[in-house]
Amino acid sequence: MKNILITGGAGFIGSTLGLKLTKQGYHVTVLDNLSKQIHGANPEKDSSTYQSILNSGIKFIKGTVTSKSDWVEAIKDQDAIVHLAAETGTGQSMYEIQKYVDVNISGTSLMLDLLTNSNHTVKKIVVASSRAIYGEGKYLCNEHKFVYPVTRNDEDMIKGDFECKCPICNSKLELVPTDENSKIHPTSIYGITKQVQEQMVLTMGKSLGIPAVAFRYQNVYGPGQSLSNPYTGILSIFSTQIKNNNNLNIFEDGKESRDFVYIEDVVNATLLGLLKKEADYEVFNVGADKPIDVLTVARLLKENYNSDIKINITGNYRKGDIRHNYGDLEKIKNILGFTPQFSFSEGIKIFCNWVENQEVQEDNYQNSINEMKNKGLYK
């Protein structure tokens, strides 16, 4: 396979993957709409990832996965598709429902419809899934063993009780890594669309005899992440706030945690899935194998930027957010030989050094919070 199409290829993961593939001798085509939310008000001029793509010689198609004609142009003569294009904000998905369904589900259906009903040369599909499809992660109850908590209720969270409870006996739980066979029960529209997207690609790939692989990415961060998008990417959101000398307001009690995985590790895992036959028709978690709480993230960013801003624990919360989740990596280690190479302390230093050399973006985070407040989704 020499010709690779990357949808959403001007984005964070896509551009990093595209540049690496190009250096390895592949012919890369990118389909991307240069969303202003991600790339800024003047994407053709201001987007560093877009400029890097143009300078590398990658073929760029400005278009959208919601357009059949754009798909027809992009798929022509391709050997493989890495389908990354998606709307990605968990909070935003709870009130931009049609937008998320149109892009994530309908856009994927257009691709699969063309692969089913037209002549093409595609021999493999890689789709970006998400840890969001799990909803709350996997836990251990002293009495009921492994359980999967349901959505936390407002009554508890208003009182400052944010931890998940056993769905059977309501007792305290111990967090354990979430494996690929864990229960899928997303708590956001975004998570639902990624679940559907993953299942569509795997189902039709098997039906058509086109090997497909899905990667359930955890929270990806690193150089190249959009610093102007106020809806997703906690490290970039916090960084933009800090560089504007704005205080950080932390949701809940700051102890909510995520699995932060560095961009190079994500790209390396994706390459293994693209190139290895052992990945065909499988799903894999891609993470760093360790949960980091949000308060720790905020403190490390403040320290790395040598900032004197304040970190406030607000007790506020967003509908659709989960408490904890980190990925079990045994499957991807055993089948693809993937092990993350970057610790969080190492990765965050590289990220912060990169941010220091970027133009400071306008901090629009409060606007995103106000949108959720107006919809009754922020408490």
UniProtKB/TrEMBL annotation:
SUPFAM superfamilies: NAD(P)-binding Rossmann-fold domains (SSF51735). It comes from the Bacteria. InterPro entries: Epimerase_deHydtase, NAD(P)-bd_dom_sf. Residues 4-139, 177-287 form the NAD-dependent epimerase/dehydratase domain. It holds the Pfam family Epimerase. Belongs to the NAD(P)-dependent epimerase/dehydratase family. This is NAD-dependent epimerase/dehydratase family protein.
